[in-house]
């Protein structure tokens, strides 16, 4: 099939790979972008995770946590420009929507929009804000967590990234919890443990690792064993408790928690502007 220059450029923007490599990958994949990315990875290309078609949303990530650290809400509200996101009135409105979600134990955006604040539903408030400001404004994500353990909230300066981390027991040192929440913010783990990683993703990573080794000329039986080693490294990079602790690379996150007598992480939620819409 004919591969257009625009498609080649798009794949290059998505992956950072060379133009000719992108053209060949698209030809091999019959124009399918996901398959083309997979082809590049199998050929050993270092593929960037960015996506050219990702919308650069602006807005705020906000959270509220109860005094006993047993309940927390995190919310993403989006607008079109950073100028609006920094506006005090916009921020105050966003805080009032967050409080409504917290006080009503709201688990999703649809339910939040129907809640009344000062005599109007939040949906109506958003419509009025759009009319007044002249930008598209919407609430894209609401996360509610309740626990018998301990919840820690971390909002990165600038309010473009936030994390809620749930610990499986009483966490007496909030700084330890903040360290782990910051780890989630910085290192983007897929899950707390290996069991939480999608099995299809694991199979694909194993296949890609094996094909890379075969393309390097390794025999089949050696490629299979070495691929398992690469999979272990994948887990160390993408599973929270196995990741190297960012403040001390000599220990894993699990080691850090155990050394400090802290409970392990049970779950986490990470919101970044524009990534979870």
Automatic annotation (TrEMBL):
Origin superkingdom: Bacteria
Molecular function terms from GO: translation elongation factor activity
Pfam families linked to this entry: EF_TS (PF00889)
Keywords annotated in UniProt: Cytoplasm, Elongation factor, Protein biosynthesis
Classification via InterPro entries: EF-Ts_dimer_sf (IPR036402), Transl_elong_EFTs/EF1B (IPR001816), Transl_elong_EFTs/EF1B_dimer (IPR014039), Transl_elong_Ts_CS (IPR018101), UBA-like_sf (IPR009060)
Presence of keyword Protein biosynthesis: yes
Region of interest called Involved in Mg(2+) ion dislocation from EF-Tu, as start-end residue ranges on this chain: 81-84
Limits of the Translation elongation factor EFTs/EF1B dimerisation domain: 72-275
PROSITE patterns, alphabetized: EF_TS_1, EF_TS_2
Gene3D superfamilies noted in UniProt: 1.10.286.20, DNA helicase RuvA subunit, C-terminal domain (1.10.8.10), Elongation factor Ts, dimerisation domain (3.30.479.20)
Subcellular localization, as worded in the UniProt entry: Cytoplasm
Described purpose of this protein according to its UniProt entry: Associates with the EF-Tu.GDP complex and induces the exchange of GDP to GTP. It remains bound to the aminoacyl-tRNA.EF-Tu.GTP complex up to the GTP hydrolysis stage on the ribosome.
Family named by the database record: Belongs to the EF-Ts family.
Protein name: Elongation factor Ts
